[in-house]
Amino acid sequence: MRTVVVVGAGQAGSELAVALRQTGFDDRIVLVGAEPHLPYQRPPLSKAFLLGKVGQETLRARAPEAYAKAGIECELDTSAIGIDRSTGSVVLADGRRLRYDKLALTTGGRPRDLRFGPDDIAGRALHTLDDALALRERLRHGGRILIVGGGFVGLEVAAAATGLGIAVTLVEAQPRVLTRACPPAVSGFVEREHRARGVDLRTGVSVRRLARRGGGVLAELSDDTEVGADLVLTGVGIAPNDALAADAGLAVDDGVLVGSLAGTDDPDIVAAGDCTRQWNGFLGRLVRLESVQNATDQARIAARTLCGKPTERFAAPWFWSDQYDHKLQMAGVPQAGDTAVVRGDASSGSFSVVYLRDGTLTALHAVNRPREFTAGRQLVTARAAMTPAEAASEDIPLSDLMKRQQRIAERTI
């Protein structure tokens, strides 16, 4: 009997294990997870779950019985500490070894560590379900929270905490929030919304040191001001969990290096999800993508590769963020040199930013425009032709441009 061991019981691991069955793998599948929980979705942790609007059962990637029905063995609360490629086995923290014929690494990522001052004080992170449970309980008691980092997690927690009546200070070292992810128009909108809701949002400011004061902390900032808080949360990005692969001699570079079919430099090992740096056929370069969509798509590709049915499938990467009653949606990954065209009034609560390169649509960021985003994502995937005037004109719906693109595609078949 052949055995596939999947190390990492997150979104990618769950999808990969089930996809193996759906692709025709009939033998043993073992899913190994360091956490005690069955695979769950992480995005709601900083949104609806933190607000208490959804329960733990809603977070599950699949119902518990789905794994039993598919014949997937779940080894939870079990850390993998080594890979012995010479014997084809995974070494577990409890001393056991799991033999594998094929191995899938879906180990995800971890919050980048950030510590402050001579006392080496670290802020709280929000990445796992247990993190979210502890933070939700802490926020129930009110008080003040200092959030370090103006990325999606920090901003989503700021929105949730404000909704719970918590006094929020958010500091971002860059000149604006979402610097790496969004254009200035979207950053400006987000900053205005948070400040309007009472968040003390400070950009171009970092934390020099934290000192304990009573039951809380006192933060000394780079602009020589001080902020008191009962709780500090850091959200400065995710680092890939690639040490297991590196220790086993696999190629890593800020992530496990994989090709377009999710294969590593060992023909018996694939990898998928946040732990990888992949060759992305749509973007035409190596990239590390942290998203549910990528974890799901890449896991399915990896499953087909393991089953001997390799198939490349690349579409425009897409992401989203919910803050207050606003929805931010992004398709594609803009590059330096792309032209950003604002579609609509950026000072309003509804607009888009379209990115063009040599007359081709490369990315779209939509604020409270879900229908436009749906059409825009298809246009980005189709690498549709578009002029700056068309991009800027709201008199030309993106759905009409999609119909034009479909006619062009039909003529080329």
TrEMBL record:
GO terms for molecular function: oxidoreductase activity, acting on NAD(P)H. The keyword Heme does not apply. Its cofactor is FAD. Gene3D superfamilies: 3.30.390.30, FAD/NAD(P)-binding domain. SUPFAM superfamilies: FAD/NAD(P)-binding domain, FAD/NAD-linked reductases, dimerisation (C-terminal) domain. Keywords: FAD, Flavoprotein, Membrane, Oxidoreductase, Transmembrane, Transmembrane helix. It holds the Pfam family Reductase_C. The keyword Transmembrane applies. The chain crosses the membrane at residues 145-171. Residues 318-401 form the Reductase C-terminal domain. Residues 3-299 form the FAD/NAD(P)-binding domain. GO terms for cellular component: cytoplasm. PANTHER family: APOPTOSIS-INDUCING FACTOR 1, RIESKE DOMAIN-CONTAINING PROTEIN-RELATED. This is Pyridine nucleotide-disulfide oxidoreductase. It comes from Streptomyces spongiae.
